[in-house]
Amino acid sequence: MKFVSTRNHNNPVSFTEAMFRGLAPDGGLYRPDSTPDLSGFFASLADDVPFNELAADLTSALLGPEISREIIENIIRDAFDFSPELREVSKGMYVLELFHGPSCAFKDFGASFLASSMNHLLSESSVKNSGSGKNGRAIIVTATSGDTGSAVARAFHGRNRIDVIILYPSGRVSPLQEKQLTTLGGNVTALEVDGSFDDCQRMAKAAFTDPALSNLPLSSANSINPGRLIPQSFYYVWAWTRMRSMAADGNFAFIVPSGNFGNITAGLYAKSWGLPVNHYIAATNANDVVPEYLKTGLYTPRPSQATCSNAMDVGDPSNFERLDDLYENSVDIFRNHIEAFTVDDKTTLNTIARVEKEHAYLCCPHTAVGWRGAELYREKNPEIPAVILSTAHPGKFVEIVEEATGRPPELPFALKELAGREKKAYPVGNRDTDLREWLLKRFS
Ligand SMILES: Cc1ncc(COP(=O)(O)O)c(C=O)c1O
Fold first, then answer.
1. N or C: which end of the chain has fewer CB within 10 A?
2. Which pLDDT tens digit goes with each residue over 85-108?
3. Ligand 1 mean position to 46 CA, how many Å?
4. Nearest-CA residue for atom 13 of ligand 1
5. Which domain holds residue 399?
6. Does the beta carbon of 307 sit less than 6 angstroms from any atom of ligand 1?
7. Is there a domain that residue 377 lies in?
8. How far is CA 86 from CA 60, 75, 177, 241, 398, in A?
9. Which of 388, 348, 350 has the alpha carbon at shortest distance from 369?
10. 130 — pLDDT class (breaks 50, 70, 90)
11. C-alpha distance from residue 190 to each of 78, 104, 420 (Å)
């Protein structure tokens, strides 16, 4: 499989090049240039295939022969010492827990695969001296609304060929997320931006096409990077291997709490490769430009609005461009593949409390948006089981969970140990030139 820009389908590049570039030179997003038919491969998977094995086989099916089987096995072994878990929380309501990785969020899947791939491929001679991997080194610039940064920080920490620069919106991430971003040190540097997540995302995007920075081996780890996106498809396939015997003919729905729409895009790619699951439901908070698009046919980005599911506060989701491209810029085709629901903050908090009370299951606010989205979907489709992607551990959102239930959640060990660590972040303004100046000072 090769990759092309969403804005120009004529210049395919290898996965390695697309991954190190992060963003296509014309400002578009890389997307697969072809739609392989993997239905035979999916059908051949065992019901209990281990996640690592599935990940290695699917990577080979997608990226072989560009990357040898031996390197793929090394990448997967280094990337995943954790796996998704699937639970039936109430009848027809399944939760796909994606928070068993090092930063307790779904982004660990994408970030770990990306870090491991870059690390392995940077030592390959073909990559060492090519455009984005100059002298065997890379600089990751990534914007975060909370979770991406912590997953990226953990995944890349200590990889000595790679520097990581994380931009986060000051005051708009939870205290724990901030600790995760700012306390690792070493090759991981946090920039505290005086602005919103959209500012951070715009600044990071601008850096990749800024001629003044063209000598730096910049790369991205945001959900726009195809090296993050592809591995996010693995757990959709894994969940299907577990669900297909429970839901006849794979007739179930994935409900995906969505902000930047990277997670659901990965699932929709898996569908395009022949994964026999037909229903993909995006659940958003008040930042509902995609649900609005589905209703009205008009895509109207707007400034993001702060909500209690803050990692989904995105007013102009980057991956809309990929989905729009996949669905031939047609809202009618788009509507055939995705449905969407919007959940407000009051309902999100009620849902956290209600699900805990009724099912003894504690959700993070993003998962609660998904849970409520699943309920709304099943009001219309009661016979279709829902698989809700649980994108973060509730312990990452202590204040919100406590507000909803009256009690703070239990913290997993990975979060507990952060308490005593000291924050180190560089404050920067919210203009593209603020980031440019900082990078030039640091790396020239
Ligand atoms: C916990 C959590 N849930 C959901 C999302 C939304 O995922 P996406 O931006 O891929 O739509 C994010 C994104 O940062 C997140 O961190």
1. C
2. 999 999 999 999 999 998 899 999
3. 29
4. 311
5. 83-104+229-412
6. no
7. yes
8. 25, 24, 25, 11, 23
9. 348
10. low
11. 24, 19, 18
The residue to mutate among 258, 307, 393, having the most atoms of ligand 1 within 8 angstroms of its beta carbon, is 258
Ligand 1 site, residue 201, Cβ cutoff 6 A: no
Quick check: bond before 217 cis, omega within 30?
no
The pLDDT tens digits of the residues spanning 192-238 come to 999 998 899 899 989 988 999 999 998 878 778 899 999 999 999 99
How many Cα atoms occupy the beta-carbon half-sphere of 248 within 13 Å? 2
Element (H, E) at 205: helix 197-208
365 lines ligand 1 (CB under 6 A): no
Answer whether residue 431 is part of any domain.
no
Helix 234-243 to helix 262-272 angle, to the nearest 10 degrees? 60
Nearest Cα residue to 321 out of 278, 366, 267, 260:
260
- pLDDT tier, 126 (very low <50, low <70, confident <90, very high otherwise): low
> Does 308 reside within a domain?
yes
When divided into structural domains, the chain yields a total of 1
Indicate which atom in ligand 1 lies nearest the CA of residue 364.
1
| CATH value at residue 299 | 3.40.50.1100
Q: Which residues pair with 163 in a beta bridge?
A: 139
- Please identify which residue in the block is written with the tokens 């063209």: 214
Amino acid making up residue 343: V
Residue 268 lies in a domain: yes
Residue whose token pair is 């051949």: 44
